[in-house]
Amino acid sequence: MFREMLRFKQQMTDEECLEVLRTAPRGVLSVVGDDGYPYGMPLNHFYCEEDGKIYFHGGRMGHKIDALRKDPKASFCVMDEGVRNEGEWFLRFQSVIVFGHVEFIEDQEKTYEISRRLSRKFTQDEAYIEEEVHRAGPRTLLFALVPEHMTGKRVKES
Asked: Rounded to an integer, what is the distance from CA 147 to the centroid of its chain?
C-alpha cells in the first residue's frame, strides 16, 4: 500500500526516525483540503512513547479540523536542524515522514496532560505551563496521528 524508498541506502532505522520525532520542535501536517487540494501547515507536536502516537493541539474549528473530519488520512513531515561541516556549503539533515490517520481526543484530562508534555519541549517554566493550560485548555482540541507507515532519510543537500 505504501511505497518503498527508492534511495534505500539513505534510509534511516525506525529508532533513528523516532529520535527525530522526539526531538524536532515542529513539522508540517498535510491533509486533504478543500476541493481535494493538499493543505499543509506547520505545527508543533508531541511524540508519545507510551502509545506511539503523534499529538497535536489547537483550536476546535478551522480548515485543518474540517479537512480531518472529512478525511482522517494525513502525513506529517519533520526534519532535524542538520549540520554543515567546516568548508562545506551544503547541509546534512535527517527527515521523517509519517503516514496515518487522525483520531480526535475527547478526554479533557488527557488533553491537558499532553498539552503540558508538549509545552515542556519549549519551556521548563511549570507556572507558565499551568497558566496556559488553565487559560486555553477548555478551548483546546487534541488530536493524534496514528502511524501506519514511517520512513526516514539522511539527506545531503546538493
From this structure: 11
- Would you identify the CATH topology of the domain 8-156? Pnp Oxidase; Chain A (2.30.110)
Q: Do residues 105 and 48 lie in contact, with contact meaning Cβ atoms separated by under 8 Å?
A: no
Summarised one tens digit per residue, pLDDT across range 45-73 is: 999 999 999 999 999 999 999 999 999 99
Amino acid at 92: R
Euclidean distance between CA atoms 47 and 22, whole angstroms: 6
Q: Read out DSSP for 33-96?
A: -GGG-EEEEEEE-EE-TTT--EEEEE-SSSHHHHHHHH--EEEEEEE---B--TT--S-EEEEE
pTM above 0.85, yes or no: yes
Instruction: Count how many Cα atoms sit within 13 Å of the Cα of residue 21 in the half-sphere of its side chain.
Output: 27
